[in-house]
Amino acid sequence: MDVLEVLRRQPSLNLFPIENRLSPRAREALSSDANNRYPYVEGPVSHYGDVMGLDKVYDYCVELAKEFYGARYGCVHFLSGLHTMYTAITALVPPRSRVMVLHPEDGGHYATITVCEGLGHSISRLPFDRKNLLIDYDKLAAELEENPVDAIYLDASSMLRLPDARLLRQAAPDVLMCLDASHLLGILPAAPQTLVLDGGFDTISGSTHKTLPGPQKGLLVTNDEALAQKVVERIPFTASSSHAGSVGALAVTLEELLPCRVEHAEQIVSNARELAAQLAGRGFSVAGEEFGWTQTHQVWAYIPEEQGPHGWGRLLTEANIRSTTVPLPSSDGLPALRLGTQELTRSGMKEADMAEVAEILERILLRGEAPERVAGQVRDLALRFPGVAYIGSPQGMSAD
To answer: What is the pTM of this model?
Structure first.
């Protein structure tokens, strides 16, 4: 096998809601010699003598993360979203606590309950309104009045609507409240109801390669100095190396995106709304019409039962379209298409391009055209958008 040939990017249409495209400078950081190096560290009886100045890159990345999210403290040492979750929970939630989470049936991450139970915590379920696809804040307040919890860890993997941080805080005034924003980190600059660190979430964290178009890594921000210190002190016991090349790639991503982060976030959501409307207009059954289809990067389209759990996904894969089919809160436990517009947006696509994306899906999934007949249109569309948008200015574009 020619491994490098397999690893090179092929022209495809990426509708995964969990991936994105790195900029050329960020990829250069990932392939640098820093990947095999440790930053400078001195302890009471130890000395790690880095000569590259990697500690300055770490510090710079933290400063960028703080500015990006308007936070007072940050940490960028995590290897992934799941590593971030594990570190945050072990650092901030005392043993044998009562933790409330979003159940996977309501869009929560598959691993959160297992991680918490493995650490000895007792679990309860955030009340969730599956009709409106929102946390039931009134019911939450009533439940906490009767059965208090020590922490809320909100980890939504499948989400069309954004949580309101202030309403959550009103319902849980004295509870440690952590948002795992793995799917939302790139959208938060345009989500003032969610990006709240004073009077809202105690911490916001997540993986950095979904709507935030960075490397596969994790970050955490907070306005609480004591919480930040606990997380930093825990890091050496959950990862001996935080992969300096990835820290550099994250710093590059934040630096490039910082001047246009609001426009970038708004375009992701606008593209998702347009894609959803286009799919619905072509005969797909799409969730969320009553609230404008979506407030995030995600679009949910229901799969006819006769297609089975994998039918549509396999057809799209054969046409070089990356997609996911998973059970969703509004699909009664049945698999549905969970699509994302973050990489389409990162490549420079706008609302007008969503019609062609929807047409491609219609040809394969509704008209029944053979995937190989549609693959040429997929390739042509991908090749029209080979670059990376939103670098340094609202209209920035770099050839890839």
So the answer is: 0.95
